[in-house]
Fold these 2 entries.
Entry 1:
Amino acid sequence: MSAIDIDKISKIDKADMLKSLVDFPDQCVEAIRIGKDASISYKASDFNNVIFAGLGGSAIGAEVFCCLFRDELKVPALVSREYTLPQFVDDKTLLIIASYSGNTEETLSSYDMGLKKGAKMVCISSNGKVEELARKDNFPFVRIPAGLPPRCALGYSFFPLLGIFAQMGFIKDKSSDADETIKLLRKLRDEKLAPQVTDKDNLAKPIAATISGGLAAIYSASEHMGAVAVRWRGQIAENSKHLASHHLLPEMNHNEIVGWENPKAILKKITAVFLKDKDDHIRVKHRMEITEKLITPHAKDIVVLESTGESALARTFSLIYTGDWVSFYLSILNGVDPTPVERIGFLKGELAKIK
């Protein structure tokens, strides 16, 4: 019997993270509708830059967006995970305020700064202070459903952006790509990822087993897949309560590759995971192959995972969804409930004491 069978899952996964994973394609369908129904009067021609202000699970959707559409967006777009905004923010800045809870203190600080600088804002949250401020200051507000850990709401943090930015004219309509993505996610879930899929056919369980007992180093190309590596690292940390790192190529080849020499005993506990896509730059593809050869003698193991799907959107989410399942199965192997994030709660409590 598998070390990750449904009985073991039910004993450990007390808050039912499994349901969030299984329901994720349906979440994406609802999120697409939310984006299409949003009423945004801004036009892309009104802006010189776009900034997404958010943290953690609320920021990753924006990071995926920036990576996916870096070749389509005609103005600079970046994700700000800070209390403050860049100095260049002004009335030609589109500021997307993203906070799942609506109460993230860094994001609220960015809202205040954006307001003072005259930025035009679109606010996205489930409720909280963000909604209150958006209503008061008459900025467009997009409500997403509450009740999930922010990292489980990636569909809600990403897919509404497709409709919102298409409305404004920043990107083309992505309906067909989104439809393909939903179909692919359901197929992956049912045939490659869910607990009932046998170990032999399951894509995520063996990767989790390989990482178990050691560390994970996640690598991808920086151009379009950089956010995917960030997501993998974050999910392994929060869901699995397990340390992981990530780095992006080609930059990784200019520093971190040299570090794969010492300490030798630790290196033998590291699984290097390479996330690949058919649209990776040809030179990056060569770099990944050579990097694999350099790392293999030193690592515990090497995992190579290729994206699947036709559109860039589908391929991106094929890797993201697989990584989410890997982190879930790793939590079961670690014997920890994937949902609670007690250290984050403790940190917020301590910060609340400091005025």
Entry 2:
Amino acid sequence: FDKKIDITIICPGFIKTNVTYNALTGDGKPLNVMGEAHETAMSAKDCASEIVTAVKAKKEEVYIGGKETRAVLLKRFFPKIFSKKVREAKVI
């Protein structure tokens, strides 16, 4: 281990991609629906830019996205509230 290797853990939230649109349903058919969270999410270009900035700054861990990234803190400090919010969350 004579070489120093910097590692940045990237924790993305919702990023505007076709991931939900291209997802498969239980019977294997395409979902063909863009999830609301992805429609209003950060662009992939902006996400990539933030990743590059974090890596250059040698950040150990970075959360990228919108308000959904606050869930990390909510889970850490208020786990019961987090669990309740997850159960109430609207899917797609």
